[in-house]
Amino acid sequence: MVDDPYATLGVQRNASDEDIRRAFRKLAKELHPDITKGNEERFKKVSSAYEILGDAEKRRAYDRGEIDGRGDPRHAGFRQYARSARAGAGAGATGFDEFSFGDIFSDVFGGAARNGGARANFTAKGQDVRYTLEVDFLEAAVGATKRVTLPQSGMLDLAVPAGVTDGQVLRLRGKGQRGIGGAEHGDALVEVRVRPHPQFKREDDDIVIEVPITIDEAVLGAKIEVPTISGRVQLAVPKGTSSGRTLRLKGKGIKSAGKAEAGDQLVNIRIVLPEKIDDTLAYFFSEWRQKNGYDSGRK
Known about the structure:
It is built from nine helices and eleven strands. Strands 6-7-11-10 form a four-stranded mixed β-sheet. The chain folds into three domains: 5-117, DnaJ domain (Helix Hairpins), CATH 1.10.287; 129-194, Sandwich (HSP40/DNAj peptide-binding domain), CATH 2.60.260.20; 201-292, HSP40/DNAj peptide-binding domain (Sandwich). With 299 residues, the chain is an alpha+beta fold. The termini are far apart.
């Protein structure tokens, strides 16, 4: 629903020209983006309302129901009026035409009126828009290009940088809402949401993973294959490795933008016994325990 410009400026329909000018001055000073952040949308509405009520012809046309709160014609017959009004602007116009936006902002913000007080073009940067983009864990870790659709800007290929974190916001300059009076577009702010991975977890730039090994690999040592974010690699498991020990793969973590080195991959070892303990294994350990019992540190 289009806003009523009288309600937007907070004045009655029978308000005088001076009442409207005074209301707009007050709101412009409170809401201007250069003074108070976060009020851009309301400032645009206030400015749009004054564009109608601050012009005698447009105000009369609005009061007669010929244009709406945006200044657009309510029926086809008014289009001729709209063209005539634009053609006649500055040529003997009266009322609010003598009081331009330039005059207001010169008074409110201390700027000098230009061109002898002629109507200045009002400009304002477009509003930023926010989106959410879900990416896989590995896409966030190593970087990816995602094709996304922005309602304001159509389809584009968005570069997701390597090492992007969950909740990080990517700024796409000029992909937001259109500016007013030819000003630059706003930006698109894309919040990244990273889906969890079934194996990998992230701690800063390190990758953490748990890897199971057999009892014989733990006792005798072994070379095993483990996954990393860049592919599978060989890991040397030292002889006598206990469950809970962490082995480090240097440089196999995340290489974040602006950092000289990548993080590491931390491999947490978990010893897994066979599902069935046969008689041979049981007899071996019973004999071994009698001769080689040791303190596990359990309290």
